[in-house]
Amino acid sequence: MPKVLGGSIEAHRREVRARVFDVLRAQLYERGFDAITLSGIAAEAGLGRTALYNHFPDKESLLVAFVEDEAARYVTRLREAVEAEADPVRQLATFVRLQLRVLAEYHLPPGGALESALAPSAYRRISAHADPITGQLRAVLLAGVDAGCWPAQDVDVVVPMVTAALGSRQVIDVPADRLDAAIEAAVGFVLRALGTGEVPDPRPI
């Protein structure tokens, strides 16, 4: 019988997932999705292949579970950081800073695009995790209008424009000593685009 990690079935499940996700994260950014194998993940995580297959029957289900876990953690972190600020201007600045900081920390995996590597249903599940993030941005933009921080505008147009601007790696693909300045330039750009010239000082996130 396989050894149960953590003393209970639920603790065992969490421990296995944590080990596997740590290995997958490293391998994604080192090798790319196409080069990953479940047997290689199991070996590096110190698990038997059968034990891993009991949790994730294939590479696709593993990747979807990993992205869902990462997204849930980030959405919680983003919501808490934004809601800690009472002023919509500071909320938007915090949103922009955190989005770019995370983009700088987590490089896209090398190799083929995930959209082409996954079945459409799996890719849709992954893409759906952007909804809470855009929802947070929408709420901040509407709050800013209500508070008179920037003029009324069509958020259905503005949200994808801001999202597209913050999704470009060119913004943060700079030497490490220039990253803070690049992020602050992006904060100023987004705030001015919305109609406010105020750029609040950054706080630890």
CATH topology of the largest domain: Tetracycline Repressor, domain 2
Main β-sheet, in a few words? none
Number of individual domains: 2
- In terms of quaternary structure, what is this? single chain
Order of helices and strands: HHHHHHHHHH
Rg over CA atoms: 20 Å
Beta-strand portion reads: under 5%
Structural class: mainly alpha
Low-confidence stretches: 108-113
Distance between the termini: 45 Å
Number of helices, counting only DSSP H or I runs of 4 residues or more = 10
According to CATH, the homologous superfamily of the largest domain is Tetracycline Repressor, domain 2
Mean pLDDT: 84
Counted beta strands: 0
In the CATH scheme, the class of the largest domain would be Mainly Alpha
CATH architect. name of the largest domain:
Orthogonal Bundle
GO molecular function, one term: transcription cis-regulatory region binding
Pfam families: TetR_N (PF00440)
InterPro entries: DNA-bd_HTH_TetR-type_CS, Homeodomain-like_sf, HTH-type_TetR-like_transc_reg, HTH_TetR, Tet_transcr_reg_TetR-rel_C_sf
Domain HTH tetR-type: 14-74
